[in-house]
Design goal:
The protein has 485 residues and is of the alpha/beta class. It is built from 13 helices and 20 strands. Helix 2 packs parallel to helix 3 and helix 7 runs antiparallel to helix 9. The longest helix has 26 residues. Bound molecules: ligand BES, manganese (II) ion and zinc ion.
């Protein structure tokens, strides 16, 4: 798909050449400066009761007199905000995607266009047009829509074009994350993730290193090894580095949970919906996606992605409830529940992250069902002991419509992790499950400026539209871009 700018005024939209014109109208009246032909037909439609200025409503028109584009889709936006624009674009693209148009001109009338609108156009259209086909050759053919031209003024052209480029980088990262996470567990193995990282490295000049079991043993990652030991799939510990900043600049480190299938292990999960545990590498997918987006954006920043990847399986070699392991940090852990495996692989990855002397470390994980109960699928759970880091991540989420919500880390929650046989247990009780999981991770971050994103509710959708969302690639990319000097 291709996104570009096209210089024209609202009054001149009738003369814009395209297969279709997607006209987003902000506000509650026909904009005064709108092209006469379009204003006429729109007013008539409103008077006839066929169109209302109601967020998300659309009107399809064919061969409008005085309008060069053969098809016109009008989409209503509540106001000029990026949020309302997103909603209107999604509705408009929904109308156009089953039709014959290939080249679409997009215009915003009734409000001022900004670079943020441009970025939103790209991410929204790309999201709406994505089709998974890796293991489904019978998937419907991709929509014909191939190019989008965003109408803007001459003065805006450079800023709008820059917004489109940022949007393209994010959309490519989101797509990579969705492609990885949607693949079933027998395709997307730890080895597959490692190969995807290696390919990403080749394509975008990243340094990629993949540690094997023996390397991880040497490093003393007893906790990560414990989770991996029940599986016949070889574990991988992936380290990918993008160097776009000064040599001396401290990197941002992203740590992604890469459980390519989570059965629960000996503490096995119920059968219903267990298939969705193929998405348990959504954190890892978002790290790969963010690396891709940041590299495409050529951001002047250093970024390290770390992915501990393995399966969580029940078997004769699997860990058992009550087993005690020693983490890379030296702290011992009593594994009371083998289904709380995400924190067990992340804690060693967090300790490993120390060697990069990072400016900040953010781990991303489909960590707890409790977070789904707390926040549902709208906002990811954000935990951090650093207020500035938390504020930066929240702001990045707002800017990219990839929302998060800050959760508490009071020391009182830590009591739940007490163990009689080790420095800590790996589970608290049912109460505050997302928080006690974060408290567990926090015990491994004393030397770090750290935040944790629990994406259990936001990384994928269940039900009829089951599939990976690619979140939180937009949030993470915006955060990393905001750290560029
Ligand atoms: N991958 C799951 C978390 C999860 C569950 C994400 C459901 C999305 C939907 C994680 O490894 C897990 O099993 N967590 C347990 C922790 C519990 C044993 C303390 C959970 O949430 O039930
Ligand atoms: Mn689990
Ligand atoms: Zn899990």
């Amino acid at each position: 798909m291709d996104f570009k700018t096209q210089v024209a005024a609202a009054a001149g939209l009738g003369a814009v050449a395209a297969d279709a014109l997607l006209l987003v109208v902000a506000g509650s009246a026909v904009p005064g400066d709108l092209d006469k032909s379009l204003a006429g037909v729109l007013t008539a439609a409103v008077n006839a009761g066929d169109f209302a200025f109601k967020s998300g409503s659309t009107l399809y028109l064919h061969r409008v007199d005085g309008v060069k584009a053969g098809r016109v889709v009008v989409a209503a936006a509540a106001d000029g905000s990026v949020k309302a624009f997103r909603k209107a674009v999604a509705a408009g693209v929904g109308v156009l995607k089953s039709g014959g148009a290939r080249r679409v001109a997009v215009a915003l009338a009734g409000a001022e266009l900004t670079a943020d609108h441009a970025e939103a156009l790209v991410t929204c259209a790309s999201e709406a047009l994505y089709v998974y086909r890796a293991t489904k050759p019978s998937a419907p053919a991709a929509a014909k829509l191939a190019s989008f031209a965003l109408v803007c003024s001459k003065e805006q052209n450079a800023a709008i074009a820059a917004g489109l480029r940022t949007g393209e980088a994010i959309a490519a990262g989101v797509e990579l994350a969705r492609e990885c996470a949607n693949r079933p567990g027998n395709h997307c193995t730890p080895t597959y993730l490692a190969n995807t990282a290696r390919q990403l490295g080749k394509d975008h000049g990243l340094k990629v290193e993949v540690l094997e079991r023996k390397d991880v043993e040497k490093l003393g990652m007893g906790s990560f090894l414990a989770v991996a030991q029940g599986s016949a799939e070889p574990l991988k510990f992936i380290v990918a580095r993008y160097n776009g900043g000064a040599k001396t600049a401290a990197p941002v480190v992203l740590v992604g949970k890469g459980i390519t299938f989570d059965t629960g292990g000996i503490s096995i999960k119920p059968a219903a919906e267990m298939d969705e545990m193929k998405f348990d590498m959504g954190g890892a997918a978002s790290v790969l996606g963010t690396l891709k987006a940041v590299a495409l954006a050529k951001a002047r920043v250093n970024l390290v992605g770390i992915i501990p990847a393995c399966e969580n399986m029940p078997s004769g070699t699997a860990i058992k409830p009550g087993d005690v392991v020693t983490s890379m940090s030296g702290q011992t852990i009593e594994i009371l529940n083998t289904d709380a495996e995400g924190r067990l692989i992340l804690c060693d990855a967090l300790t490993y992250a120390e060697r990069f002397k990072p400016a900040a470390v953010v781990d991303i994980a489909t960590l707890t069902g409790a977070c789904v109960i707390a926040l549902g699928g709208v906002r990811s759970g954000l935990f951090s002991s650093d207020d500035t880091l938390a504020a930066d991540l929240l702001a990045a989420g707002e800017k990219s419509a990839d929302l998060a919500w800050r959760m508490p880390l009071d020391e009182e929650y830590d009591d739940a992790l007490k163990s009689s046989f080790a420095d800590m247990g790996n589970v608290g009780g049912r109460a505050g499950g997302a928080i006690t999981a974060a408290k567990f991770l926090q015990r491994f971050t004393a030397k770090l400026r750290w935040a944790h994103l629990d994406i259990a509710g936001t990384a994928w959708k269940s039900g009829a539209a089951k599939g990976a969302t690619g979140r939180p690639v937009p949030l993470l990319t915006h955060y990393v871009l905001s750290q560029a000097k």
